[in-house]
Amino acid sequence: MRPITGHEELDLFSQLPYVLNKELADDLAAGRRRPEWMWVALRGDRVLARAAWWSRPGGGAPLILDVLDIDDSLAGPDRVDIGVRLLHAAMAATLPSGERRPKYSRFVPPDWRDNAETRQSVEDRMTALRRTGARLFVERLRLEWRPESPVPEPGGRLVFRPIQDAEELVSLMALALDGTLDAHGRDDLTRMSVHEAAARHYEDELARYRSPRDWWRIAALPDGEPVGFVLPARNDYNPIIAYLAVLPAHRGNGYIDDILAEGTRVLAEQGVPRIRAATDLGNVPMANAFRRAGYVNFEREINMTWS
Question: Angle CA(200)–CA(248)–CA(226) in degrees, nearest 5?
Fold first, then answer.
């Protein structure tokens, strides 16, 4: 059990299939991954299991454990045992001592529970993680709008304007956290104030996007009162709806459809090949809004965390 030595061992690391394999070379080149964060369990030249962490370019420490694979052709309980042993060895060598372990993320098919083989594969990985102390945090829907879908038309009830500055956006984000159905938002509020949670999310994620800020929109009533906002953006991989919210005083009026339509139009006008978004499985109103706007659920995401 060891980390890979560098780019020259990417083919070795990629023996086990996963959707992120095609991104590994670019991630290494951009500094989002490091060879010492990419571990394999080997029997000769055969990879029995692997694990890898991701970070932002140049990040000093891993942010997400987003690759954990076990050779599904292995028979018996040793299959999961190998995954557990690899995780213990890799985490001990890779993660800073005494700090909270990064969350785990896994992309899975939208119907993963309905296929016995896929379900076993996903559950084996989750079992290995649980045996290192992890627990299920949330399951999320990954959504995609494609150019062959109609571009949503303006509803006419709201007016849209650019966001003035970061302070205005953070204030609206803080308001939107009241009653949020988002698991990450609720978790943040157990450890910090509403304003601190909003400011941290802005600084740690939204402020890092290099796409134009004039794509971001505040939705308002004709008299100028803010109703919500949408943040179309582009991350390192795709055009995305980075954040979408309706303020508490205006929920239940269907404004979510108008706001999502505006964000979709902003990106569609750039001629993008797709638009990606995500929401918690339990956030039914948000999931339904994406469905009405023509977004399809192409994957799910399993998030697990260590206390």
Answer: 80
Judge: domain 2-132, CATH 3.30.70: no
Assigned CATH class of 159-301: alpha beta
Whole-number Å distance between alpha carbons of 58 and 213: 23
* Residues 222, 228, 234, 238, Cα dihedral to 10°: -110
The backbone region for 100, taken as left when phi is positive above 0, alpha when psi lies in -120 to 50, beta otherwise, is beta
Instruction: Please state, in angstroms and rounded to a whole number, the distance separating the CA atoms of residues 104 and 68.
Output: 9
Alpha carbon separation from 73 to 19, 70, 106 (Å, rounded): 18, 9, 20
Q: For the chain, how many helices (H) and strands (E)?
A: 9, 12
Taking only the tens place, the pLDDT of each residue in 145-173 is 999 999 888 888 999 999 989 999 999 99
Rounded distance between C-alpha atoms, residue 231 and residue 260, angstroms: 9
> Residue holding tokens 């700090």?
99
- For the segment 53-104, what is each residue's pLDDT rounded down to a tens digit? 999 988 889 999 999 999 999 977 789 999 999 999 999 999 988 888 999 9
Phi, psi of 31 (to 5 degrees): 85, 10
What DSSP assignment string belongs to 245-265? EE-GGGTTSSHHHHHHHHHHH
The residue type at 143 = L
From 117, 27, 22, 124, select the one nearest 69 (Cα to Cα): 124
Neighbouring residues of 45: CB distance < 8 A, sequence distance ≥ 6: 12
CATH 3.40.630.30 residue spans of the chain: 159-301
* Token pair listed for 176: 């939107």
CB 227 within 8 A of CB 247: yes
